Structure prediction request, 482 residues.
Amino acid sequence: MEIIYQPYIDPEFESLIERMYPPRVCIDNDACEDCTLVKVDSANKHGILLEMVQVLTDLDLVISKSYISSDGGWFMDVFHVTDQLGNKLTDENLILYIQQALCPSRKEKMSKELQTRLGREVKPRHVSTEQTALEMTGTDRPGLMSEISAVLLQLGCSITSAVGWTHNTRAACIIYVEDASKGGPITDPIRLAHVEEQLENVVEAHDGKRERRSVRLMGPEAVQTAQTHTERRLHQLMHADLDYERCRVCDGGGGEHKMGCDGTHVTIESCKEKGYSVVNVKSRDRPKLLFDTVCALTDLEYVVFHAVVASKGSMADQEYFIRQKDGCTLDTESERHMLTQCLVAAIERRVSHVCPGLKFEVCAQNRMGLLSDVTRVLRENGISISRVEVWTRGDRAVGSFYVKDTSGYDVNPNIAEVVKEEIGGSVLAVQKSPRWATQSSSSRTIRSTHGSIEDKPRFSLGNLLWSQLERLSSSFGHIMSS
Prediction:
């Protein structure tokens, strides 16, 4: 293992630098015809890239390209962004919010008035630090969400929001609840222990005592202490549940595809001249792809020094120049294998690529047991939930359900109407859920390789990075001169 030694910098000194030279954010609508450039110049710290990507994705903005450089003590990033309709960002309130949200010193002072003027929730909509939170992982099976929501209803717990993912036969969910009779969080430790025990019985009833599973109920104090972005926490839960283990690395010889490899291609190489490991990821483009990839790298304690991300048509290319947080590069096959599996898992958790599915969105009057009713109807009709997001807006409840037929057939779109009749709400949209398209065998195979970056002539996004940095840095000016 090659170690790149770096000077020790006292954390207090890093904090002082950040206070002296806070991040500068420039929103540029003139440089490109088809997108807005969000340029950030800042003192560097671990996790800052994820924080910035998180802000943009929570606003449902589309990031089509990004150039990143953070060698030394400074961080420079340029995001090419549009709204969901492909338009530039022209809303002054939105621009002001982005500028403040990307600056930690300003973020805490952001006024409620500014958030209100945006006319929508800007924090992750299913996050709450004032309610009781349930975290669960276990074996995926049809009807699991239905059983959990039914038990919570029986125990007098009202669900205010929920988000759940399934991947490689594993399931994870985070559900926020409150006391149905009194309102507010459940704080009685005896009652919390009872609810947790009943939920453990539900999970254990099918998984068995030897199966991997986890059920954790937290009061608002614990939630406030953790204060982790909900979708990032879901990644952490599924990683801890070892869902990535079934993403097998193929032998590289053009053999048969392994489960979990469809649509994602990862290579890891060594750039010894610069002391980096170079990670290339090629996959189908989709919303929040950059967030999921950066989230995996950050939580695995890798530092991104340079990166280029670009989408072309339906495909996305990502190239990262990384080291481990302790300065080491990835020189062993086991390290490269592990990172490859984890990146593929992070990319695939959000999108089904195995079974045809359906996505439908519903809106209804919020009431006790609403989620239980919806999931019961799906279970009774032989429909399994692969992903779900439910949240409340005032007296309304809104949910997105990604479902698939447990028998392997196409889901009948009429299931949305059946749900509508049951809950008395409205169906906002019904569409085929995102799915990896069929590709040639070479692009469907994951391979992990190691060698000098010059050993194998190929197009490199890194070359594009070096050519862009000088031009981009001139638009910032030196941070010390401001």
Observations:
- The first strand starts at residue 24 and ends at 28.
- The radius of gyration is 23 Å.
